[in-house]
Amino acid sequence: MKKRKMVIGNWKMSPDTLKEAQVLNDSIKRKIGSIKKTIAVICPPSIFFSTLKTRSSSKKFFYGVQNVAKERGGAYTGEVSASMIKSLGAAFAIVGHSERRAMGETDEDVCKKIQALLAEKIRPVLCVGESAMDENANYLSFIKNQLTKGLSGVVAANITEVVIAYEPLSAIGAKNPITSHEIHQRNIFIKKVLADLYGKAKAFDVTILYGGSVNPDNARELVEGGEVDGLLVGRASLNADDFFRIAKVMDSLS
Ligand code: PEP
Fold first, then answer.
1. In the structure, which protein residues have their CB atom closer than 6 angstroms to any atom of ligand 1?
2. Domain containing 193 — which CATH number?
3. pTM over 0.70
4. I need a labelling partner for 11 at 20 to 30 A (CA). Which of 22, 53, 143, 241 fits?
5. Segment 15-57, tens digit of pLDDT
6. Gap between the Cα atoms of 202 and 156, Å rounded
């Protein structure tokens, strides 16, 4: 079965107020209704979740969170559990984003978070990506390590629930993405790692996204050239029009 294209918007710690978040959310919801085949997901700050009416019955528009606690419940001040976000309608959750890894999130944490999410039937979006390329291609072992450690508790029956987002650090919040040729190489490499872990058929069913300086003008080239299943979008997801234009590109490629 052909995989549906996917676009995920990561609002990060924006916008500043609930009022602005409501305006952005309403505007995206209004526009995204005309998207036919693509799965569109927005990940607002979880503090805004209940007010944004994130419980949606749509089969193509979903909400996700940007992080989740690795523990299922208990005395963990400031944390938000998978069951809490599930009860507010979250269908996806980003884990292992490089900005969180920079704050200390380890591969072991990522692994636990993925387990907690799958137990609540929330789809984890596992971010992997090298901080720099090197001549000896050590960056490939780095990506492989992130994948194998993060997925170490995931059995074959669940692997297609996990979305992999390849995000090289050099392209996040940057001026330009990496080339679609480079994305294609990493995509093949990620599929190879998944095939070694779960078999070829499963590996080809896993949704693999690219993220890093995506905008409406480069979206087509990145997805077509990189042969990825979609995009994880930061800055451009804070503009309803840009996010919608990217989703429209995905729809035309579906
Ligand atoms: C991100 O942080 O996941 C991201 C892709 O950001 P941007 O699109 O702004 O580069």
1. 10, 167, 172-173, 211-214, 232-235
2. 3.20.20.70
3. yes
4. 143
5. 999 999 999 999 999 999 999 999 999 999 999 998 998 777 8
6. 8
